[in-house]
Amino acid sequence: MKPNEKDDEPIDLNLDAEPVGDSPLELVDDGLAGEAAGAAPAEESPEAVSEAVLTQLAKLQAEKDELYQTMVRRQADFENYRKRIERERKDDARRGAAIVLEKLLPVLDAFERALAAPDNGDSEQYRLGFELIYKQFTDALRGHGLERIPAKDQPFDPFVHQAVERVETADVEEGTVVEELQPGYKFQGSVLRPSMVRVAATPSAAQPEDDAEPPVN
User: Fold this and answer.
1) pTM of the predicted model, to two decimals?
2) Residue 182 near residue 195 (C-beta atoms within 8 A)
3) Neighbour tally for 143: CB within 10 Å
4) How many domains does the chain have?
5) Does residue 71 sit in the same domain as residue 132?
6) Is 121 found in the same domain as 60?
7) DSSP string covering 168-212
8) Would residue 39 count as lying in a domain?
9) Range of the domain at 189
């Protein structure tokens, strides 16, 4: 029998020849490189970064505006509180002074009645000293805001005058103060005591004779 030609061909054992296709090591390296590339985060675009920064700035600006408005309100509240305390302090001082001055008015009335008494000429030096004391006293009261209310020959004012009597007279207009019975005073623009006065009234007309009843026969 003739031997097979293919069986007679020699086998090439050249180990230096380059292998055909990818080696197992190259396949492993390519796989690891692909996984590393997939795990790396994607870079954000400049537009996305700018939008995030603007959003954060808008949030910070809103917080700043809110804090500023809160500070303005607190400052306004404190200013109102300070003004109210100052006003109350002045009102308390004014009420205290008004109470003291009101208690001194009878003393002032006594001075004026003493000076209005007729002078018999025997105590002229005493009267001059009395007038000097009265002037010093009234100057001190005026210096603290006491003001006398005009009354005589003035139109009657119910806010500062207290009418105790109506006097019929044709010499002055109706509603005119004809006499001051007790002086009134103001303290810093407010009435401390009204003036007690008599007020003029129009005289009532006499009954006409024609209206008289006829005599009875």
Assistant:
1) 0.54
2) yes
3) 8
4) 2
5) yes
6) yes
7) E-SSS-TTBEEEEEE--EEETTEEEEPEEEEEEEPPPPPPPGGGS
8) no
9) 146-204
Tell me, yes or no, whether 159 and 182 share the same domain. yes
The CATH number covering residue 178 comes to: 2.30.22.10
Statement to judge: residues 134 and 155 lie in one domain:
no
Of how many residues is the chain composed? 217
DSSP-derived secondary structure for 95-148: HHHHHHHHHHHHHHHHHHHHHHSPP-SS-HHHHHHHHHHHHHHHHHHHHTTEEE
Query: Residue-wise pLDDT tens for the chain (217 aa)?
Result: 444 444 555 545 454 555 555 555 554 455 545 555 554 455 667 777 788 888 888 888 888 888 998 998 988 888 888 888 888 888 888 888 888 888 888 888 888 888 877 766 667 777 788 888 888 888 888 888 899 999 988 999 999 999 998 988 888 888 899 999 999 999 888 898 999 999 998 887 644 455 555 554 4
| Cα diameter, the chain | 204
- CA torsion sign, 69 to 75 to 78 to 79? negative
Q: Which residue, chain included where needed, has tokens 């002074």?
A: 97
